[in-house]
Amino acid sequence: MSSAHTAADGTADGGAAPRAREVSLRPVEPADLEFFFAFEQDPEASRRAVFPSRERERFMTHWQNRVLADPTALVRTVIADGEVAGNFVNWEADGRWQVGYWLGRAYWGRGIGTRALTQFTAQIPHRPLYADPFASNTASVRLLERCGFRRIPDPGPEHGLAPGQVVLVLEQ
Question: What DSSP state is assigned to residue 92?
């Protein structure tokens, strides 16, 4: 008889995390912003996304005045087994429809991102959709590829990429 121990990352003995039973999307509620802020403060998540954590006021101002105030954006909260797990955003920038997302670390590796992105892209009427993660964020790149995004081999300067970013596109 053996017993499992839970590692700091929420997995049993550091192994695979349990798959979420239910994953859904809903419109963002004001209280969700506190979860999103906490997820962004995770140093490992910030490192992988190559995105520095913002102080609270700056974060909240951005979300309230830019993300949620954009009438063309589709913004959703990811709910996994009844808990706020992250967010997905679709917005137009320079004539291209972008997709971005952030999941809390406790929700990584549980099939949540794949299920949520599949649901999210089904809600978006326009194509193509673009995402531009950093190549070093291999989990994010794999998530996009699993959901049908394909890498653009040599994206031009019109994509405005930082060194290390890649562009993936979903055309259907």
Answer: E
In the chain the first and final C-alpha atoms are separated, in Å, by: 50
For the chain, which residues score pLDDT lower than 50?
1-14
163 HSE (CA, 13 A, CB side): 0
Burial of 38 (0-12, 13-18, 19+ CB in 10 A): exposed
Query: What pLDDT, in 10s, does the model give residues 68-105?
Result: 999 999 999 999 999 999 999 999 998 999 999 999 99
89 phi/psi in degrees, rounded to 5: -135, 140
- CA distances to 3, 14, 29, 74 from 78, in Å: 31, 24, 11, 13
